[in-house]
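Hey,

Quick one before I head out. I ran the complex with manganese (II) ion overnight. Inputs first:
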Amino acid sequence: EFVARPVGICSMMRLPVQASPEGLDAAFVGVPLDIGTSNRPGARFGPRRIREESVLLRTANPSTGAVPFQFLRVADLGDVNVNLYNLQDSCRLIRAAYQKIVAAGCVPLTLGGDHTITYPILQAIAEKHGPVGLVHVDAHMDTADKALGEKLCHGTPFRRCVDEGLLDCKRVVQIGIRGSSTTLDTYRYSRSQGFRVVLAEDCWLKSLVPLMGEVRQQMGGRPIYISFDIDGLDPAYAPGTGTPEIAGLTPSQALEIIRGCQGLNVVGCDLVEVSPPYDPSGNTALVAANLLFEMLCVLPKVTVV
Amino acid sequence: EFVARPVGICSMMRLPVQASPEGLDAAFVGVPLDIGTSNRPGARFGPRRIREESVLLRTANPSTGAVPFQFLRVADLGDVNVNLYNLQDSCRLIRAAYQKIVAAGCVPLTLGGDHTITYPILQAIAEKHGPVGLVHVDAHMDTADKALGEKLCHGTPFRRCVDEGLLDCKRVVQIGIRGSSTTLDTYRYSRSQGFRVVLAEDCWLKSLVPLMGEVRQQMGGRPIYISFDIDGLDPAYAPGTGTPEIAGLTPSQALEIIRGCQGLNVVGCDLVEVSPPYDPSGNTALVAANLLFEMLCVLPKVTVV
Amino acid sequence: EFVARPVGICSMMRLPVQASPEGLDAAFVGVPLDIGTSNRPGARFGPRRIREESVLLRTANPSTGAVPFQFLRVADLGDVNVNLYNLQDSCRLIRAAYQKIVAAGCVPLTLGGDHTITYPILQAIAEKHGPVGLVHVDAHMDTADKALGEKLCHGTPFRRCVDEGLLDCKRVVQIGIRGSSTTLDTYRYSRSQGFRVVLAEDCWLKSLVPLMGEVRQQMGGRPIYISFDIDGLDPAYAPGTGTPEIAGLTPSQALEIIRGCQGLNVVGCDLVEVSPPYDPSGNTALVAANLLFEMLCVLPKVTVV
Amino acid sequence: EFVARPVGICSMMRLPVQASPEGLDAAFVGVPLDIGTSNRPGARFGPRRIREESVLLRTANPSTGAVPFQFLRVADLGDVNVNLYNLQDSCRLIRAAYQKIVAAGCVPLTLGGDHTITYPILQAIAEKHGPVGLVHVDAHMDTADKALGEKLCHGTPFRRCVDEGLLDCKRVVQIGIRGSSTTLDTYRYSRSQGFRVVLAEDCWLKSLVPLMGEVRQQMGGRPIYISFDIDGLDPAYAPGTGTPEIAGLTPSQALEIIRGCQGLNVVGCDLVEVSPPYDPSGNTALVAANLLFEMLCVLPKVTVV
Amino acid sequence: EFVARPVGICSMMRLPVQASPEGLDAAFVGVPLDIGTSNRPGARFGPRRIREESVLLRTANPSTGAVPFQFLRVADLGDVNVNLYNLQDSCRLIRAAYQKIVAAGCVPLTLGGDHTITYPILQAIAEKHGPVGLVHVDAHMDTADKALGEKLCHGTPFRRCVDEGLLDCKRVVQIGIRGSSTTLDTYRYSRSQGFRVVLAEDCWLKSLVPLMGEVRQQMGGRPIYISFDIDGLDPAYAPGTGTPEIAGLTPSQALEIIRGCQGLNVVGCDLVEVSPPYDPSGNTALVAANLLFEMLCVLPKVTVV
Amino acid sequence: EFVARPVGICSMMRLPVQASPEGLDAAFVGVPLDIGTSNRPGARFGPRRIREESVLLRTANPSTGAVPFQFLRVADLGDVNVNLYNLQDSCRLIRAAYQKIVAAGCVPLTLGGDHTITYPILQAIAEKHGPVGLVHVDAHMDTADKALGEKLCHGTPFRRCVDEGLLDCKRVVQIGIRGSSTTLDTYRYSRSQGFRVVLAEDCWLKSLVPLMGEVRQQMGGRPIYISFDIDGLDPAYAPGTGTPEIAGLTPSQALEIIRGCQGLNVVGCDLVEVSPPYDPSGNTALVAANLLFEMLCVLPKVTVV
Ligand SMILES: [Mn+2]
Ligand SMILES: [Mn+2]
Ligand SMILES: [Mn+2]
Ligand SMILES: [Mn+2]
Ligand SMILES: [Mn+2]
Ligand SMILES: [Mn+2]
Ligand SMILES: [Mn+2]
Ligand SMILES: [Mn+2]
Ligand SMILES: [Mn+2]
Ligand SMILES: [Mn+2]
Ligand SMILES: [Mn+2]
Ligand SMILES: [Mn+2]
């Protein structure tokens, strides 16, 4: 029986809400944290709004042939309880929550939250899987050492990950990078670690299917993580975010990137930096909900017919 | 343990969500219907947004001394599944859903939805309790016989209720009535039925505590229903509604009305006509969430300490 | 036959639109000008949005017993064509348009536009009726001599009117005045002309019925004009305006003022300074539409039953 | 003489408003209905807002060389009066209204309204012209058999049209289709009818001029209808709509599609699903107004110089 | 020479911006911090938006007779640089900044920022003046011991102040308190410290002039601090705030409270919790700007003529 | 030391604010005028909002290799004081202000303001440099002779410039032109003067790098001016503007245009027509801030490393 779209408690894609990851192949998890944000806050309401807009999603993906719920047991695990007044403690809470999820063999698909959260998530992921490859879509590299004197914030997660050996640096690609910076030598760190940095301007007016062919080669069969900062998209498509940069990627390129991960050993995904107060239409959250669904569709167990 | 406000799936007041009313003293129920709306639609998203803003509510009411959850088993029953393309069928679905709730001895507190829904709700209520008294707060009397040729819409619910004998007409009070009308003899129907009509202009700059003393007298110990159309309030306090009328009630008067029902035999309540697209701040829904909590606080089983 | 509210080309109250005032007792006229605005512009869209929201109005006024369309031939004359790049030329165009309206014996009810427009309107009015009494509701006195070196703007209309002898200064009352000013001696000019200045703070928490009794005495039977700047209201009720001032009048006080003009010899009215871009809900325009309808209801030919 | 843009009652392109289609070659008609909407309502205000934003349009189309008002007698016929509480009755009213328009030899250009309305419009069209070809731009195929148990809603119009033989199925093209669906075999119905389905992803980064060359071939000289659901566009360009899908068409592609219909035997057009509450800027309505003007420019009688 | 309102870099009331408090009697200071916020963030942009809207302010206060700039050297000291990722460090930075201001004999008038900031400000104030009296307007008492396990947040500042002996507890009044709470015994802490708690419901429909007469008595001639949380006002007047509570104070009551402090030994003031993203109109910030100006007008050196 | 983004008085890019252009190589200047606007006003707040959003900018441009502050002494000169009630007087004030700036050898980068302002700016520029080349990005040619009977408005600046010999007409390129017009022969004037007109439709889906190669050839080494009307972009990227036209340029094309001016003798630049009330997100102003920074990066003295 069909249910009218405005009807019902808003879980992600109307999935059952449960507290335990046991028995799940994959799960949506919210991390409503935004105190790592440098400019416009509001990402704490990202998970709530993404769940709301996800009512527009249906269960099959005719573009890719994926019908994920035929292959995966999936639920919405609700939100990690965060400490809104203490970023370090929040990171500790997130790590602990994800350790449990990962230990259960459940692949987490995270609804952020600002990008800080990817650091404790990857701590938990790497603890299980070892250093992972990374497909990172973002306007920013997020590899600063510190900001405002702090080691933890949404500009530093991947620096922390490198510091702690959570990434397999030869299998890291950052796509959509752009914008002004404090130095011309802005990509030095990323490149010195061996990351592949794909500038937004190298994506303008192009299909990213060829790029993703190369990325699949690079990633091979070992575990990878997908981290998608919604500000990787042009602000026209995703105005509801905290640190927008002009001249970004398009939603079709976003789909090409995620669909291009089909066949890879994806062990976790996140979609971060949706700040609903800056987009009352809800459309930024709708983009996010769609991209999370596409991530679900490329999980390894999903056989495409 | 405390939970940060942005955390978690949004049920009303973070109550457990369950499908069955069995064992409950009272329950919040959403009815996301707005196809009975004559002007601005959007009330279909009222339940969703009221639940969201209800995260600001805490469990005790220091103003009245009520601690409702000490006396009542309460849950969120989710939403009634409505037929968004057929108002008659929706009314049938609503009536059926409330029959089950009422049969279980559970007092429904409804998150609307446009005011049409009060008609099928009162069908179910009266089926169990017989004709009920009514405390109806609204800018409009909602007693038209027809609108656009139709018997069912948000301007007619109380006419239908009278037609079907669902109301104990000597125990009906309508508070906050105002605005232009199609005829000068606008109150004739209500008054001919024996309703007490309290105009908004008779409330300006006044406490409604004395009025409610009279209302309590009038209602006596028999069952009553509270139906609160958010447009009873001035649009300054509740801009997110479909048919606003200027110079309405204040939130303090709304509190006086609901708190003034303490001690009455309240068998059901609703809060209708919140249209979130017309108030992106969420504050209209916040008023609604508060008023629903206040309704919970005056249910008969709640002993005030 | 009834028409659904969203249906139809938006004229004021769905009245017929016509170009000529001949044969009309009264008419709504738009003046979509805002280049006399000192702060937030947007009042050029006031007439459009007021017409839109006026679809919520019905034809009878049960509060006052007025059924204006039984006594008056009324139409919507559309908008005066203004010169958006030249304030002086616009004033000339407005004056000419109103001369024709007034010459036809038609009482104009104006949808503004910023308050500059009242000056050329009163030129036309006084040309016919001689110096008029004035009921002026506003946060500001609008009696500056110049602003930014200019004689014409929304801060000067009543100074220009006095300069040209358009007002019967002993019959001028300004209600709702408040806010910071450039000098402590702010009311000197108004008072030196014999205006009665009623401060907003003398209205707080009070019915204005007694005041209006005095005003009716003062105005007597000679012609008066009602000029209502929507910023006379508190910004909570009318956020969509260009120079809001806190702690203003309420809509119920606005109704008391206009209804208090019943019985006076009203020869023209305006409602100015609605700036729709600052209130996407449309509710400021809705207040304006209601107040314009109330003005219509107190025109001399409307006999109250 | 020029008129300032904010000046005047808002008819489409400032055209004369008249009730009768007699003597007209083409007419704009509003259908302010949205009770066929599955998700976000608001399209009932589409016609009003499209008319407002159409003040930015001028009369010549330098890109195509069309000066439509030199060849066509055009008016704004106002809105069809709909029954907002009864979708079936609304369809009956729409059909009847369009029968009169079509009978007068007037080509209707419709301002929607949700997509349900295309069904009764095509009933009237086909009654006169026989089964028509269709250029249908949309994110969705709108060929469901039922939704929520109902035969009529914005997801079913073209199924109803096929059921009733209103379409010449070999001359139907659907452009812009995308998004998740309830089944992988989502295009089966359309394709089994012989429709050409052009997926959005086959349009990414491409000019649609070649496609339209093929479409013109396919359509030949017999009557065709253009139905443009604004959600065919990417939500970045048209955020104000009810069921947005990411990664859609661009406005330049929309222009290529409509301009590509030049020379065809266009007997009717609509632009549907503009929901103004979800785009306070008015820009979605502005896109719609432009596309309607472009449709006017490709009507058969418009000779291009 | 006058300057048009939209002209110029936005400092508070167009005052000169300077880094040093030396030689100033009073100064406006921004503290753009919001990571102590429990619900909706955004107060980090409060100072910026308050400065913007302050362009509507003029220099004299005709209601009170104050012309503050005749008596006081005032500047805008800009913003305290805060650590957006670390609340404790931010408190340290704020304290240090205010120590310098206070040491210079300059009275700080603070543009918040969330209410956490009052704690480090009062540390600096009390260091110079000893324990101070407090006029605290708020919907909340902000005297929790901890929230989410943390000692520092916007719900705890006055608890911390009591813990450290910064307040003269017999001279503390909290006005506007309301809303649901976690316990019925909600006022126990405040009252056990000797605070006077004035509930919002004891203010409904009343002038607060009598209350302030009592407060002046209570405060005597020793130093006091005014802390005004904008959520003390009803959300109708101040929608742009993070934790709104219904049925609050009015702007006229706010003026009565501040003006009622005339003659007291005011050594500092703040206006906190303006969250601009939740009020795009800017009117919440406008209220705040006005209240800050009124605070300036009651500083001890301002002689009223 | 780093400063948090929300911290501080908003000057352009946090540059020092100073009144005098002496000693500067370049300066940002605001011109908050919008009374030359034909449709939606609000550009008077463009400079304020662009400054606000410019806090997201950092000092280096890794895409082009420019580090402008290493080569240029730059400040924010604040706003030109305009006469909001008199367009001619405003033009006089602007011209006078720019004469001083230009006389000091300082290159002005203007934050508009509607496009009218380019006329008096070019008067000052040409007085110093003689007739200049022009790179003009816009949806409109802005070469009307008159509008509403006036010579001065945002539709006429370049006609006035030609009339006065301020442009070197053989070195004028207009890019992004599109939309309906009052005549088919719309480009006649521009072309008859020798302007190169590049239609938006000739830019669709194309890199503009080749075009800019030709433009550089055409411009040669003599002085040029860059005038960028934000409505040159598609409204998806810049919704906050007054006369949007669909199917416009993309931000990446905007970057290609400005970066393509590298090496030219740029003597002044402006970015006009940002109307903040129509984009509460601030993103239109963010685009503008970025484009202004890019203009700074192509000034002649900036050597690219
Ligand atoms: Mn990031
Ligand atoms: Mn980012
Ligand atoms: Mn009702
Ligand atoms: Mn109502
Ligand atoms: Mn005024
Ligand atoms: Mn005013
Ligand atoms: Mn459709
Ligand atoms: Mn569709
Ligand atoms: Mn507080
Ligand atoms: Mn508070
Ligand atoms: Mn231009
Ligand atoms: Mn333009």
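The longest helix of chain B spans residues 87-103.

Talk tomorrow,
K.
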